[in-house]
Amino acid sequence: MRILQQRCLINKSRSTSKYTHHNGGFSLLELVVVVLIVAILAAIVSPGWLAFVNRQRVNKANDAVLGALQDAQKQAKKIKRIYSVSFAVDNGVPKVSIYPNPDITNPPPPLTSPLWKTLGEDMRFQQGQVLIYSNLTAYNPSQTTNENANKKAANTVNYTTALSTTAISTITFDYMGVLAPKADKTDADTILKVAVAAPKVGSTTTAASELKRCVFIETLIGGMRIGKNETECNQ
């Protein structure tokens, strides 16, 4: 009986020893396999994740453009005053300014003014993540008056050159919330467009990637709608 007990204890000890040895850690081969699997998954997921993040940024930026335009229009109707909204890109970061404008020929406020805010402040866009474009003749700060307000340059948006500190686009609504007359006093008879896009990867310019969104401001009544790609934005 005593011999049988001793044999049982020996067998149990051997079994425990094998179990402990087997679960003592990963072998080098197992670690290599795990690292390879993680690397493969990262290579597959990374481009898709980056595309998702860029799409979210552009969508949010376009929503912010639409919101700024609607806010300016709403303020114009509420206060019964001319309101303007200006867009620019300062040091690679999109900016917006909404302000009362007693005369359409007035220039937008200087970029040092607190009236300028980062577009979509809650998104905290970093330098070069989102760019803004338009089909308006850009405001030139060297001019004494904003003669290009509400003046369309072309039907299509120029996606090779983004707005900047020296290329500011301004859209103005009159006291009824419709597009104010152009500086030459003629009716605003053309569709205005403000577009946003992710920058083209590897480009040293401000050219846009394929990911684009835009807001149309319709003639006279000031109605607005969204375009979801370059084809729609250049209709």
TrEMBL record:
The chain crosses the membrane at residues 31-52. The keyword Membrane applies. Keywords: Membrane, Transmembrane, Transmembrane helix. The keyword Iron does not apply. InterPro entries: N_methyl_site, Pilin-like. It comes from the Bacteria. This is Prepilin-type N-terminal cleavage/methylation domain-containing protein. The lineage of its organism: Bacteria, Bacillati, Cyanobacteriota, Cyanophyceae, Nostocales.
